[in-house]
């Protein structure tokens, strides 16, 4: 309608974009370097777990299981804080801390082929993503979860074609969801490049991105107070 203010992507959206790129980084590194697991996308991880069990590759199944348990533990930790007035800050702060530990372990172990170091890296990455999944719910940008984008893609396609069919303007939520999806895609491309060209950036930048997300949230709250 004429006279309505134009809605623009704001600080919560930018926070979500940083988290989406971090999620992509976790999945790219885990899949390519941690024996084909996902530490963010649990739907894909469960499928990989089922494939490993079905083929009788029990050792491979334990890698996916470690990711699943780490993700669940991250959710449990975040749930303990989500009702706190500063819950989102604490959750993003803890995620940053876990990703710092993850990066430091990589500095010591690099990409271990097996054993406790491999499981430790998988678990710390997955715990961080479990925390992030709760943080994304608290930020609540157009229902974008930041750690898996199947539902987001479904919403984008439905909104796009319904708007075309009914000849209505595209809803603002569609722009928000599409921007977050692009952030995940860009993160996947960027971190895949870093992983093979500058691996130290692939392992350290996730902590930096979540710290920036924390600062972005902090500033948006301060501006609104």
**What is the strand content?**
under 5%
CA-to-CA gap between the ends?
30 Å
Put simply, the count of helices is 8
- What is the third-level CATH name, the topology? Growth Hormone, Chain: A
* Structural domain tally: 1
- What's the CATH class label? Mainly Alpha
User: What string, H for helix and E for strand, traces the elements in order?
Assistant: HHHHHHHH
CATH architecture field: Up-down Bundle
Structural class: mainly alpha
- Radius of gyration from the alpha-carbon trace, in angstroms: 18 Å
Q: Profile the largest sheet.
A: none
* Uncertain segments: none
Quantity of strands, as a count: 0
Give the overall pLDDT as a whole number.
93
Explain this structure.
This protein has 225 residues and is an all-alpha fold. It has one domain: Growth Hormone, Chain: A (Up-down Bundle). The protein contains 8 helices and no strands. It has helices at residues 11-33, 42-54, 58-81, 87-109, 115-139, 150-166, 172-197, 199-224. α3 (58-81) packs parallel to α5. The longest helix is centred in the C-terminal third of the chain and has 26 residues, at 172-197. The mean pLDDT is 93.
List the topology elements.
Layout: H1 11-33, H2 42-54, H3 58-81, H4 87-109, H5 115-139, H6 150-166, H7 172-197, H8 199-224
Helix pairs in contact: 1-5, 1-7, 1-8, 2-3, 3-5, 4-5, 4-8, 6-7, 7-8
């Amino acid at each position: 309608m004429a006279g309505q203010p134009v809605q623009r992507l704001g600080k919560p959206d930018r926070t979500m974009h940083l988290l989406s790129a971090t999620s992509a980084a976790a999945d790219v590194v885990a899949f390519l370097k941690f024996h084909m697991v996902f530490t963010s996308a649990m739907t894909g991880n469960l499928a990989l777990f089922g494939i490993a069990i079905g083929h009788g590759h029990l050792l491979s199944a334990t890698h996916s299981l470690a990711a699943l348990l780490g993700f669940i533990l991250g959710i449990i930790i975040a749930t303990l804080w989500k009702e706190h007035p500063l819950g989102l800050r604490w959750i993003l702060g803890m995620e940053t801390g876990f990703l710092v530990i993850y990066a430091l372990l990589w500095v010591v172990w690099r990409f271990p082929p097996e054993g406790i170091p491999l499981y430790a890296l998988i678990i710390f990455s997955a715990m961080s993503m479990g925390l992030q999944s709760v943080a994304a719910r608290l930020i609540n940008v157009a229902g974008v979860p930041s750690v898996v984008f199947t539902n987001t893609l479904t919403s984008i396609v439905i909104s796009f074609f319904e708007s075309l069919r009914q000849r209505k303007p595209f809803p603002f939520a569609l722009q928000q969801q599409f921007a977050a999806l692009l952030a995940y895609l860009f993160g996947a491309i960027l971190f895949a490049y870093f992983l093979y060209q500058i691996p130290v950036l692939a392992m350290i930048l996730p902590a930096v991105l979540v710290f920036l997300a924390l600062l972005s949230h902090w500033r948006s709250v301060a501006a609104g107070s």
